[in-house]
């Protein structure tokens, strides 16, 4: 069994074998499910970032994308 300790601020380090098994990297999100006294942890699916110009055809030009690329 792999264990880790909880800090006074309710933080813990995910042990290396667990990070490797889930292929976790910095910035990844973790999903938890609870069934009684059993908690399952898994890597959360990557979120899809929508194109802010996709909903507005009138703003969907190369000039608009260039003007707003840094926002």
TrEMBL record:
Residues 4-49 form the SpoVT-AbrB domain. GO terms for molecular function: DNA binding; DNA-binding transcription factor activity; toxin sequestering activity. GO terms for biological process: regulation of cell growth. InterPro entries: PrlF_antitoxin, SpoVT-AbrB_dom, SpoVT-AbrB_sf. SUPFAM superfamilies: AbrB/MazE/MraZ-like (SSF89447). This is Putative transcriptional regulator.
């Amino acid at each position: 069994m792999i264990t880790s300790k909880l800090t006074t601020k309710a933080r813990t380090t995910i042990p290396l074998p667990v990070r490797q098994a889930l292929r976790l990297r910095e910035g990844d999100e973790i999903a938890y499910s609870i069934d009684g006294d059993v908690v399952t942890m898994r890597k959360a699916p990557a979120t899809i970032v929508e194109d802010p110009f996709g909903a507005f055809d009138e703003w969907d030009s190369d000039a608009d994308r260039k003007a707003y690329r840094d926002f």
